[in-house]
Amino acid sequence: MKEDEQDIARLLAGELDEAGRRVLAKRFAADPVALKALGGQVLVEGLLGVALEDGFSAERRRGELMEAVRRADQDDFLAGVQGRIRRRGWRARIAALAALLVFGAGTWTVLRPVGVGTVTRLETVSWGGAGSFAEGGVIRSGERLRIEGGLVELEMGGRGRMIVEGPADLEFVNGMESKLHRGRVLMRVNEAGHGYRVETPKGAVIDLGTEFGVSVGGDQRVETHVLSGEVEAVPEGGGKVLLKKDEALLFDGGAGTRFKTDGGSFYTELPPRQRGGLKSVHWAMEATGDGSDRAAVNGFGPGSYDMVLQTMDQGGMPGRVEGVFGSALAFDGKGGFAESAFPGIGGQEPRTVSFWVKAPRDFSIREGFGIISWGSLEETGFGQAWQISINPLDQDGPVGRLRVGAHGGQIVGNTDLRDGRWHHVAVVLYQASRPDIGRHVMIYLDGELEPISRRALHELDTRIDGADHGVWLGRNLSYKSSRPTRQHGGFFRGELDEVFILSGALGQQEVRHLMKRNEISR
């Protein structure tokens, strides 16, 4: 047996001393031809060793090797491999020598991308970039998930689950590491996934057994939030920072800036898919001569559902204008509104509210509250209200965006509606054991899932029993003649068409059908 082969055999058996390992590493670095000639023996022995590894270790080793090859040029790669031969155990030495073989031979057939996750759910996804994934599809190392909007749920090869919220660009390095270039991800990691690493443009987050979120904004603002357990954050240019439950970190240089976790910043669950028919009430906004708008009712019990046009203070009655489907109603923001005896959907029941809205370009922040509202707004009744508005409060989020509030918590969208154009809106509260305004409400704008710019958490329990009014259109829930609220205005100014309230959560395709056909899909 040649000297090289004897040294290889001794290395594989763990019998080669430090000096011998150093000489061997230098010999292969200087003679790629010899490396290739001896590759068969190394590769066979290496694969036998790899076969003895458990699945988790093998997956992680392959991923690390792929990433090392991808990142490094030849000189750096060879130097790193030599170091592994000198320092690591026999299986790591085999993997390193096999990597040298592949690199020196100029072929990548051994290092094929491996599956790192499976797409378990797509919700309202619009794809960006060249490719897309289907439900049940496998994501492999080196692939990137690019979405312009929507939610993607992934099962991470037995290591846990991930929810990606668009717009997002996520690169899968290997089974234990991904790179978030933009967007939001929520990781729920099990024991097999401990140590999972999320790289960002400004540092990394490493799981220590936890549920955590990472966000990269369009302005490259990077945050991580710990919902349970612990993570290790490594900001660029700083040391390691240990974060525990309810702690968050802004990656702004050095050790970063700590603050309290905003759990509502991330979707922690996807909505269940709707099954079966839904009860509904529909107001077409085609006011009749008697000052009312007839209701089309399906599934709800007997009662009065028509919308009655009213006015108070200095306002005028809502007037008919041209709408998206036939006529619509215009509200003056001074005192005109409409009311139905229908109390709305109460408690924690799932619901969908769908309508068309047009807000003028000269819209005032005093004219934002109260597009559609019901429930109770008592001082101590937090979470008991349900009100959809155009946000007038900059402390709660960007002004002019759609807002869904529950008195004590709210979500605010991302699109400025003050443009004098018709927009279709669907607000969906989906089924949950303890529904929260910040976690379980989705907004669809013109058929697309609307990114949420700001959330404030509060459990929902809409109070309709004992409320002193039913569903209001155009009137702020906090405005009452006995104690008028002048600070934020009492009435909405704009136009409304085709208002639906349904007793369940619609999905995107059903929302789009309603938007295009003005009817509920069956």
Task: Describe the structure using short key phrases.
single chain, alpha+beta, Jelly Rolls, 3 domains, nine-stranded antiparallel sheet, 29 strands, elongated
What is the structure about, briefly put?
This protein is of the alpha+beta class and 522 residues long. It contains 8 helices and 29 strands. It has 3 domains: 103 residues, no CATH class; 151 residues, Jelly Rolls (Sandwich), CATH 2.60.120.1440; 237 residues, Jelly Rolls.
Please state the structural category: alpha+beta
Q: Percent helix among the residues?
A: 10-25%
Terminal residue distance: 77 Å
Assembly annotation: single chain
Q: Summarize the biggest pleated sheet.
A: 11 strands, mixed
Here the CATH topology of the largest domain equals Jelly Rolls
Total beta strand runs: 29
Radius of gyration: 30 Å
Provide the residue-averaged pLDDT.
Answer: 81
* Proportion in β-strands: 35-45%
Architecture per CATH nomenclature, i.e. the level-2 architecture of the largest domain:
Sandwich
